[in-house]
C-alpha cells in the first residue's frame, strides 16, 4: 500500500475530503520526523512507539579494499508496535494463510 492508497482508504472510510486527509497525514509524518530528530519519543497507545536508538562507535571494513574504518556513534529511528497491534496482525495473517491467500506480505 502506498501513501496515496492510504489517503484514499481513509478518505473513503471517513467521508473526509481526500486533500484534507493528505494534509493531515503529511503533517503527522512531518511532526514525527521533527520530534524524533529533536531527540523526543512518540507513544501512541494501541499502535506503538517511535523512538531514537543510539548505536555505539564500532570498527567496520570496506569490503572492496579490506581497509578498516571507524563508524562513529549515531542515532537512528525505530518503531516498536504495541502488543495490541502485534496480536491483531498475527491473528489476521494466520486467518489469511489458512484461507489460502498466497499474497500475504507481498506489498
What does this structure look like?
This protein is an alpha+beta fold and 107 residues long. The protein has two domains: 1-38; 41-99, IHF-like DNA-binding proteins (HU Protein, Chain A). The chain is 45% helix and 25% strand. It has helices at 3-14, 18-37, 83-98, and strands at residues 42-44, 48-55, 58-61, 68-71, 74-81. The protein has a three-stranded antiparallel β-sheet with strand order 1-2-5. β1 and β2 form a beta hairpin. α1 packs across α2. The protein is extended, with a radius of gyration of 20 Å.
Characteristics:
single chain, 107 residues, alpha+beta, HU Protein, Chain A, 2 domains, three-stranded antiparallel β-sheet, two-stranded antiparallel sheet, 3 helices, 5 strands, 45% helix, extended
Mean pLDDT: 91
CATH homologous superfamily caption of the largest domain: IHF-like DNA-binding proteins
Structural class by sheet pairing and helices: alpha+beta
For the secondary structure, the number of strands is: 5
Overall, the morphology is: extended
CATH architecture of the largest domain: Irregular
Uncertain spans: none
**What is the N-to-C succession of helices and strands?**
HHEEEEEH
Q: How is the biggest beta sheet arranged? A: 3 strands, antiparallel
Kindly report the CATH topology of the largest domain: HU Protein, Chain A
Strand order of the largest sheet: 1-2-5
Q: What is the terminal separation in angstroms?
A: 6 Å
Number of distinct helices: 3
Strand content: 25-35%
Radius of gyration: 20 Å
CATH class of the largest domain: Few Secondary Structures
Share of helix, binned: 40-55%
Tally the structural domains. Answer: 2
Amino acid at each position: 500500500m502506498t501513501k496515496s492508497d492510504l489517503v484514499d482508504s481513509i478518505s473513503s472510510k471517513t467521508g473526509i475530503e481526500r486533500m484534507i486527509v493528505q494534509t493531515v497525514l503529511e503533517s503527522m509524518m512531518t511532526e514525527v520526523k521533527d520530534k524524533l530528530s529533536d531527540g523526543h519519543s512518540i507513544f501512541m497507545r494501541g499502535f506503538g512507539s517511535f523512538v531514537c536508538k543510539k548505536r555505539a562507535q564500532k570498527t567496520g571494513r570496506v569490503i572492496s579494499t579490506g581497509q578498516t574504518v571507524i563508524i562513529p556513534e549515531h542515532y537512528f529511528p525505530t518503531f516498536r508496535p504495541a502488543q495490541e497491534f502485534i496480536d491483531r496482525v498475527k491473528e489476521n495473517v494466520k486467518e489469511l494463510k489458512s484461507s489460502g491467500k498466497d499474497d500475504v506480505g507481498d506489498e
